[in-house]
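Service request form, structural biology core

Requester: graduate student, group of Dr. S.
Request type: structure prediction, single chain
Budget code: on file
Notes: please return the result as C-alpha cells.

Sequence provided:
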Amino acid sequence: MSEFRQMALIGSTASGKSALAIELAHKNNAHILSLDSLAIYKEINIVSAKPCMEERENIQHFGLDVIFPDQPFDVTTFIKLYHQAKKTSIKDGKNLIIVGGTSFYLNILLNGISQLPTISEQSRLKSHKLLSNLEKAYRFLYTLDQAYMKSIAPSDRYRIEKMLNLYFETNLTPSEYFKKNPPKPTITQKLPIYEIAVEKEILRQRINTRTLKMLKCGLIDEIFYLEKHYSRQPNCMKAIGIKEVLSYLDGEYTKTEMQEQIVIHTTQLAKRQRTFNKSHFQNKTMLPLYELSKLLAKKDVFI
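Core staff response, request fulfilled:
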C-alpha cells in the first residue's frame, strides 16, 4: 500500500456499527480502532456489546480490552490508542477504520484537546481539602472564573476537581490556562465520516432485541462478577446496563422492570448520541444501514 488512509463510522448505540466496520475492514484492507468508553475495559464483555473474538473475524481491533475496570482513563487514552493504531496500520500496510461508539472521542481527535500539566501531590492535597465541601469548592472556582465555570454543573465533582488541580498547579484560572494552551487536533488530514441513520422505532426494537440477547448470554452473572471483583466504585459500574442490574440485585427492580429500564435508558442514550453527532459532524454521509452498506461496497470509502 502506497498511502495510509482512514475513515470514521459513527451512529447511535445498537445501530450496527461494529458489524459494518468489520465488513468494511475486510473489503478495504484495514484495522479497526474502537472509540467506546465501555468496550475499552477487560472483563466487561456482554454489557459493552463488544464483538467477541469470533465476530472480529481476524481483523485487528484497537481500543478493546485495554484496561481493567478499576483502572482510570481519560480522553488522552484514546489519543494514545489512535497513535498506536495508526503506527501499526502503516507498519502493516493497512488502512484504518475508526468506529465512534462514543463519538465525543472522535470529536476530540479532530478538534483537539489542551495538554494538561502533571499535577503535583501538593496541588492534589489542596484540591482534596477544598472538595470536602463540593458547594464551597464550586463557589471558589466560580468566583475566580465565572465564564468558564458556567459550563460545569455544581454537582460535577470530577470536572471541579480537575479545574482545582489545574488552578493550584499553574496559578491560572481555567480560561487563562486554556487561552495559553489552545487545543491541538490529532487528526489533521481530511477524514471521511459516515453515519448510520436509524428510525426511532426500528432502533428501539434493535435495543430491545440486544437487551434480551445480553440477558440470555449471562448479563446478570457478568455484573455480579464485576461487583464482586471491583466493587461499585469505578466509574464504569455506573454505566447503562450495569446500574440497572445492580438495582435488580438490590431488590429494587423485578427482572422485567430491570429489562425495561435498560431499554429506556439505552434509548435515551441513543437520542443524546444522535443530537451530539448532528451538532458536531456536519460534513458526513448519513444513510440507513442497508443503504450505507450498499453504497460503501461500491465506492472508495476513504475518499
